[in-house]
């Protein structure tokens, strides 16, 4: 980063308009850059931090974007416990670098210490479990690949009390270890480190501790710090009890409580359809007590709890705070990451869902790109010419190569090719509407143009061009762009003459005579009239005469008479010089 570079702080996501304002750029330029990167966005649409970074880089701005620190507030539990709140089990996430042993650790914990119960009912993968240590339940959240968990991020993180960070003793701190540490800190969760694979020959727990202490401010207790690090072997079931004790110990440092006498509320962790059962949804209860027969609302879905099961498929009469459960009875699948709550009756549930759906639609409408938006954006002033295209192709691979090739057509920066829309599949009425709104040409590669869409395109004067061969598409796009290039002006010098006498000067005509001093002159040429090397006028030669005869050509050293057409009265004098030339407009071609 150069010293001149500015640092701008933006949130995790930002609207196009806000970003333009932050960067002090016209919105159109930003929208254009997004188009170039295949993102069709309006001023009100949100883009994420990473996209903003890419755009800033592509624009070559001397700016560094910094992510606004996530305010801790957003990561708090939905509800603060009241005076009446009761103790609840800690919620623990197991995280770490791939292959460091998260799954093995979870298996190890669950195989020996799980609440025993009849398996059966629902055996699908569940992403939350419970174990018992010293008579106290501990809720464990599985965080497969971290991505699924990222979707739950805000609320999932807010619910996480403790993060067990698994680090392999023979491998040390790796990128996902660092990610897990960051996650725990963002979530305001306590950290317990499990130094795994202690049974392995190359195990070096001190190296792990040293890395964590020196690079990540996690100081082991035995070195005077406050992070508990437990050596374990997940594979050989060693150190598991000590690890769980450590989890309970750090949990006890926080007062983990939740209200019970309130309507149940919590988080949707997973949802899928199952044959014969309908929707099967995993929930984590945050507060209150969930029972069969309760009416649930989550986002735009609702339902009545038909069956309530624990994570092993055992039927429950009720489920209190920190309990992972599986319910059936949702009419539609909720999204994971949705908050669920219970309401009095079905009527209220339905009303809430209707309102949520309306809200979602309104939100979608406000962020969708409409043809009119595009038109407005496109017709704003630009220095360069624009060619808007919509590309449709049969498969993703050909779509990508068509778009990449189009972008590679070199127009010397004079024509901006904008892909205002793209997609895989048949050309649709929507494509035509988008094209009409943005003045775009539709390029279809190995795709169909249904007759109804063709009629619409003809009515709206939208050009649709279909190809089966990629270079034909490119040739055509290139020639379309060539037609848009402003022609080049080429001037060719032919000869010079010195005025020896002026016979007549009219409003738009001068009759004069002179001597050709270089080259040759003919009729139908243009001439610059120069006096003391300065141009005083530009005139057209209408006729050339030699010895009172119309002459085709007059050469150097010869005298001649000239009839010149002028656009306004020009006073040509003896001694003025005329430079004769032709001027042509030459159509340009692209390289
Ligand atoms: P994950 O990607 O973090 O879930 O890692 P896994 O639990 O799938 O473990 C990755 C590999 O390490 C597997 O081959 C495990 O058998 C092995 N592994 C896990 N824990 C231990 C351990 O304590 N000792 C040894 N020797 N191998 C382990």
Strand and helix layout:
Blueprint: E1 6-10, E2 13-15, H1 16-23, H2 27-36, E3 46-48, H3 49-58, E4 63-67, E5 86-87, E6 91-96, H4 102-113, E7 128-133, E8 136-141, H5 147-151, H6 153-159, E9 162-168, H7 175-186, E10 190-196, H8 205-216, E11 228-231, H9 240-253, E12 257-258, E13 265-274, E14 278-287, E15 295-298, E16 301-310, E17 324-330, E18 339-343, H10 346-367, H11 371-378, E19 385-393, H12 396-408, E20 415-424, H13 429-438, E21 441-445, H14 451-459, E22 464-467, H15 470-484, E23 488-505, E24 509-522, E25 526-531, E26 534-546, E27 549-550, E28 553-555, E29 559-565, E30 577-586
Parallel strand pairs: 1-4, 6-8, 6-9, 9-10, 10-11, 19-20, 19-21, 21-22
Antiparallel strand pairs: 2-3, 5-12, 7-8, 13-14, 13-18, 14-17, 15-16, 15-18, 16-17, 23-24, 23-30, 24-28, 24-29, 25-26, 25-30, 26-27, 26-29
Helix pairs in contact: 1-2, 11-13, 13-14
Bound molecules: guanosine-5'-diphosphate.
Residues 96, 98-104, 196-197, 199-200, 233-235 line the site of guanosine-5'-diphosphate (GDP).
Cα gyration radius (Å): 38 Å
Q: Estimate the global geometry from the Cα principal axes.
A: elongated
Largest sheet: 6 strands, mixed
State the secondary-structure class: alpha+beta
Contiguous low-pLDDT stretches (5 residues minimum) are 71-75, 113-126, 365-383
**Helical amount:** 25-40%
Beta-strand residue percentage: 25-35%
Quantity of strands, as a count: 30
Domains (count): 5
* Distinct ligand kinds: guanosine-5'-diphosphate
Second rung of CATH, namely the architecture of the largest domain: 3-Layer(aba) Sandwich
Lateral arrangement of strands in the main beta sheet: 7-8-6-9-10-11
CATH homologous superfamily descriptor of the largest domain: P-loop containing nucleotide triphosphate hydrolases
């Amino acid at each position: 980063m150069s010293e001149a570079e500015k640092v701008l702080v933006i949130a995790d996501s930002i609207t196009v308009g806000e970003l333009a304002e932050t960067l002090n750029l016209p919105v159109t330029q930003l929208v254009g850059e997004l188009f170039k990167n295949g993102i069709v966005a309006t001023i009100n649409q949100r883009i994420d931090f990473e996209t903003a970074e890419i755009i800033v880089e592509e624009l070559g701005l001397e700016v560094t974007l910094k992510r606004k620190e996530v305010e801790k507030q957003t990561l708090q539990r939905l509800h603060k416990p009241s005076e009446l709140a009761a103790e609840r089990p800690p919620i623990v996430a197991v995280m770490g670098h791939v292959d460091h042993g998260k799954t093995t650790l979870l298996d190890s914990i669950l195989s020996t210490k799980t609440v025993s119960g009849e398996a059966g009912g629902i055996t699908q993968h569940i992403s939350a479990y419970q174990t018992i240590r010293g008579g106290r339940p501990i809720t464990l959240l599985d965080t497969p690949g971290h991505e699924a968990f990222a979707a739950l991020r805000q609320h999932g993180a807010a619910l996480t009390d403790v993060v067990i960070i698994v680090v392999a003793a023979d491998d040390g701190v790796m990128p996902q270890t660092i990610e897990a540490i960051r996650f725990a800190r963002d979530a305001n969760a306590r950290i317990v480190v499990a130094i795994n694979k202690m049974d392995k020959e190359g195990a070096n727990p001190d190296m792990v501790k040293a890395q964590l202490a020196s690079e990540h401010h996690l100081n082991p207790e035995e070195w005077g710090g406050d992070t508990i690090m437990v050596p374990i072997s997940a594979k050989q079931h060693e150190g598991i009890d000590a690890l769980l004790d450590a989890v309970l110990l750090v949990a006890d440092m926080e007062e983990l409580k939740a209200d019970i006498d309130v309507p149940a509320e919590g988080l949707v962790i997973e949802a899928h359809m199952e044959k014969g059962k309908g929707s099967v949804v995993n929930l984590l209860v945050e507060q209150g007590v969930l029972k069969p027969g309760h009416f649930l609302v989550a986002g735009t879905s609702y339902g009545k709890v038909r069956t309530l099961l624990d994570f092993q498929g055992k039927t429950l009469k009720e489920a209190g705070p920190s309990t992972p459960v599986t319910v059936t009875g949702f009419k539609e699948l909720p999204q994971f990451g949705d908050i669920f709550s219970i309401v009095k009756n079905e009527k209220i549930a339905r009303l809430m869902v209707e309102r949520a759906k309306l809200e979602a639609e309104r939100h979608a409408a406000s962020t969708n790109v409409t043809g009119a938006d595009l038109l407005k954006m496109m017709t704003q002033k630009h220095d360069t010419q624009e060619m808007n295209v919509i590309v449709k192709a049969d498969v993703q691979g050909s779509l990508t190569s068509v778009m990449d090739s189009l972008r590679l057509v070199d127009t010397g920066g004079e024509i901006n090719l904008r892909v205002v829309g793209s997609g895989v599949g048949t050309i649709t009425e929507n494509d035509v509407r988008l094209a009409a709104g943005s003045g775009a040409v539709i390029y279809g590669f190995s795709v169909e143009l249904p007759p109804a869409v063709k009629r619409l395109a003809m009515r709206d004067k939208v050009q649709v061009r279909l190809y089966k061969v990629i270079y034909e598409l490119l040739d055509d796009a290139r020639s379309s762009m060539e037609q848009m290039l402003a022609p080049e002006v080429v001037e060719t010098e032919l000869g010079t003459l010195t005025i020896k006498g002026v016979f007549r000067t009219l409003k738009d005509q001068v009759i004069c005579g002179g001597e050709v001093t270089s080259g040759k002159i003919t009729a139908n040429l243009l001439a610059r009239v120069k006096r003391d090397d300065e141009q005083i006028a530009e005139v057209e030669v209408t006729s050339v005469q030699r010895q009172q005869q119309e002459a085709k050509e007059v050469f150097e050293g010869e005298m001649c008479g000239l009839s010149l057409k002028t656009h306004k009265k020009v006073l040509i004098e003896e001694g003025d010089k005329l430079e004769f030339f032709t001027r042509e407009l030459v159509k340009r071609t692209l390289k």
